[in-house]
Amino acid sequence: MPRLALSALFSLCVIAAGSFAAADEVLLTKGEQVVTATIGDEGFLAYQFNVGRKKPFFLPVAAAGGFTELKKRLETPGSNQDQLLNSVFVISEGAILRSTPRSRDAKETLKFGELLVASKIEGNAIYIPAKDGWLSAMNVVPIASTVVRLINDEIPLVKIDKKDPRYYDHPHHKGIWFSIDEINGLKHWAEGHNIVNKSVELVTPKGETAVMKVVNHWVNEKNEPVLEETSTIRIHANRLIDYDATLKAVAGPVTFGHTKEGMFAVRVPNSMREIMAGAHVVSDAGVEGTKALWGQPTPWIDYEGKIGDALYGVTVMDHPGNFRPSRYHVRDYGLFAISPFGDPDYTNKKVETPPHELKQGESVQLRYGVYVHPGDAKAADVAGTFKKFAETK
């Protein structure tokens, strides 16, 4: 199992009796380095903003139904061969391991980012045999429904087949993130230059829609801010993430140069990639396949694939309120991104949009959605979810 070099966050969750109920409320918990989102009594995601990486990002992010799928795997003979799919990812700093499913005793304190193999689920408590203790489902997400690729800091030294489960490329592709190259020539997408978090505020910590506001500085080689990103992030109980960003030029004029390397992006796990059996990529108009959809503007695209035996999907959505339609950088190897900058790159120079420029103090607003779900686009009502997203202001 790959080593995950990930940091910690604080949470005071206790194990409660009961089953995995239908989720109808989001709870945000802010730690020193991570904001955790739980929905109902299940962990959903972590937003990592201060973990020694080159930018903030969401990782892990889990679709609904993962704990049910994990329980089924643990109770089905012959389903325990893949220990990674039987594992959970700790999303809470200070998550408490307890001696029984309902006890309040603290047997051990765990760290954010630990990967732990489970063997049994009772109610919303998960048994970890290696530690002989129980964890609350609110403190973890199951790898069996984690729809973003985990970080691997031990990149293979030799090239292996793309279909190999160990395949790992483009280490700057981290979960779900927001960045782009060619900001006055700066390479924030490729992580040649950093995006530094300055603040995180929980505006609405709890509700059917929970809201946080983040301020990030996009810096140059001297760590001086060039762009100030102020983003309102709305997390809905249906597992739609609404990322509403304003980028402001703070140290002189800024030019968004033409590039395909951006902007709001997802990297799906290896098993979900289009090159794997059972995967499918489709747009709102029913156009299929990454080759047909690459570089195209369209309201939404759904990237579907299997994790174990279960089908999951990730939909990226372009809000109609953006200053112009964005194009999709969607690949068969698992990259899934959207950007309004780079028409010439996406169209083989058939569309020559001028570079987008901001004078000092000017800003541009960009709003995108990502919806994670079990099943295909039709079963998950992606069209209906997009309609509601598009109607919000």
UniProtKB/TrEMBL annotation:
One matching Pfam family: DUF6807
Signal found in the keyword field: yes
Signal recorded as keyword: yes
Keyword terms: Signal
Source species, domain of life: Bacteria
Signal peptide annotation: 1-23
Protein name: Methane oxygenase PmoA
